[in-house]
Amino acid sequence: MTELQFKRHRRLRSSKVMREIVQETHVHKQDLIYPLFVAEGEGIRREVSSMPGVFQLSLDCLNEEVGEISSLGIPAVVLFGIPHEKDELGKGAYHDHGIVQKAITQIKENFPEMLVIADTCLCEFTDHGHCGVIKDGDVQNDSSLLLLAQTAVSQAKAGADIIAPSNMMDGFVAAIRQGLDEAGFSHIPIMSYAVKYSSAFYGPFRDAADSTPQFGDRKTYQMNPANRLEALREAESDLEEGADFLMVKPALAYLDIIREVKDRYNAPMVAYNVSGEYSMIKAAAQNGWLDEKAVVMEKLIAMKRAGADLIITYFAKDVAKWLNEAK
Fold first, then answer.
1. Residue 66 lies in a domain
2. Can you give the pLDDT at residue 220?
3. Annotated binding site for 5-aminolevulinate
4. What's the maximum distance between 2 C-alpha atoms anywhere in the chain?
5. Which residues on adjacent β-strands are paired with residue 249?
6. pLDDT tens digits, residue range 155-189?
7. Would 4 be classed as within a structural domain?
8. Residue 304 lies in a domain
9. Cβ proximity of 80 and 39 under 8 Å
10. For binding Zn(2+), which residues are annotated in this chain's numbering (predicted)?
11. Among all residues, which ones are annotated catalytic?
12. CA–CA separation, 156 and 108 (whole Å)
C-alpha cells in the first residue's frame, strides 16, 4: 500500500512539555492591571453583590489589599472612587483631597514600586451619573473637558503614574495633555480609553462604582457596538492628541477591534476585561457549570493573541496565583 503523504501537526502536541515549548502566546503577571474601588469612610470592605470577590475598600483597608496585590507580582492598579457626596459637576473628582487623590498618595507612599493608574472621569462623582456637565438634559462636551483636565492634574499632583481618561468626550486627550503639560506633568503618560463601546457588559461595574446614569444612557458619547471603522477613527484621533496607550473596552466581544487597532497603530494596547465578562464566569463557576481557571486563562490568552499588551481584569489576583502555582 502506498504511504499517504500529509502533514503531521500532532507531532507538536504529543506531550505537555512539547505543547508548552511551542506555545505562541503567553499571559504573564506583568501583563495584569487590577482595578480597585476606593470608598470614603472607615472600616469598609464591602463585597460587590454582582461581582463575587471584588470589594469596595476604605483607605484604612487599602494597604492590606495593595500589599497582597504587590506580593503576587501584579505591577499596576487602576483606581475608581466612591465619594460620600455627589453634585452636578462631580467636584469630588478634581478636589485635591478627593478619595482617589488620597488613595493615590497612600499607595505611592507605602508601595512606591506599584504603578498607580487613575481613572479620569466624572460619572462616579456626579449626582446624575453622567461623564460630564449636563445642560438641558444633554452632556456638554467642551465644558466637560475643562473639568476632566482639572481632574487629571489633581491626580498627577497626588502621585499618579498614569492618567487613564474614560469619558469619551471629543478632544479629551488633547485637553488633558495640555492641562498636564502646563501644570508641569509632561512626563505623565495618558492611557486613553480610546475605543469604549456603549456596552451591556458594564452593569456590575455600575454597582461597584455607584455610577449608574440617573436618566437616559451614554450612547451619545460611548460607541455603537456595531461599528468598526469608527474605532479606528477614535484611536487615530487620540494618538494625534497625545495618547501614549490605547485601550479597547470591553475586550472579549471586541477581539476583532483589538487586533485591527493593534495592527494599524504602533502604541501599547490595553484590553479591559470588564465587569460583565467577570461576573458571567464567576456565576457559572459557582454553579459548577464550567472550569473557572481554564475559561479565564483561555479568554486572557485570546486577548493577548488578539494584540493586547496589557489586560485590566478583576481576575488579576486569581491569575497571578495560578501562574505562581504553575512555577
1. yes
2. 78
3. 206, 218, 275, 314
4. 83
5. 196
6. 999 999 999 998 888 899 999 999 999 999 999 99
7. no
8. yes
9. no
10. 121, 123, 131
11. 196, 249
12. 12
